[in-house]
Structure formats: C-alpha cells, structure tokens
Amino acid sequence: MDKEEESGKREKHAHFISLISDPDPSTRWKAIEALARDGNEASVDPIITALGDEDWRVRQKAAWALGYMGFERALPPLRRAIRGEREGVKEMIVEAIEEIIRKNQ
C-alpha cells in the first residue's frame, strides 16, 4: 500500500471513529459495523466504549462487532457488559464471547 492509500485509510478510519459519537443511533451503529468490517485493531477500544451506549441497538451492534473482529482483549469488557443488559443484547454478547473464543483457539 502506498502512502496515499494509507493516508486515505487512516482518514476513513478517523471518520468512522468520529461517527460513533453522532447524535443519531443509526449512524453510530452503522459506523461500528463499518469499523468492524475494516478489522483495524485500533477500533476495538472505541467499540468497547460503545458497549455503554444509551441505545440498546448500538450496544448490540458493538457486541456483534467485537465478536466479528475476534480480539481477545474484548472478552473482559463483554463479560462486564452482560450484567443488567436487556435480553437481545445479552444474547449478542454471549455469541460474541463464543466467537472470540472460537477464533482464538
């Protein structure tokens, strides 16, 4: 990858990171999905932060994203996030934990 491509990729990543704090929940979860599909490990911490979002759909997408990406350092925050969570989000957190464990065996 040349410098121009790398610069464009960094800008795109920064753009999606900034959208995680957008006022619109659908924009936040779409940004999380885009970051997950990009697979950049630098996205893990902002996505972990989104596990505490006020909107359950954003929290659910964050759990999915962490499972999709498969980085083991997401396991402790996922395990903490499951406490007191609504049922659909809990199910996604469990799936994410199982996926991370499977990917790292």
Overview of the molecule:
It contains 6 helices and no strands. The protein has one domain: Leucine-rich Repeat Variant (Alpha Horseshoe). The chain has helices at 3-19, 25-38, 44-50, 56-69, 75-81, 87-103. Helix content is 72%, strand content 0%. Helix 2 packs parallel to helix 4 and helix 5 (75-81) runs antiparallel to helix 6 (87-103). By secondary structure, the chain is mostly helical. The longest helix has 17 residues, at 3-19.
Number of distinct helices: 6
> Averaged pLDDT, please?
96
In the CATH hierarchy, the architecture is: Alpha Horseshoe
Shape: flat
Kindly provide the radius of gyration, computed on alpha-carbon positions and rounded to a whole number of angstroms: 14 Å
Labels describing this entry:
single chain, mainly alpha, Leucine-rich Repeat Variant, 0% strand, flat
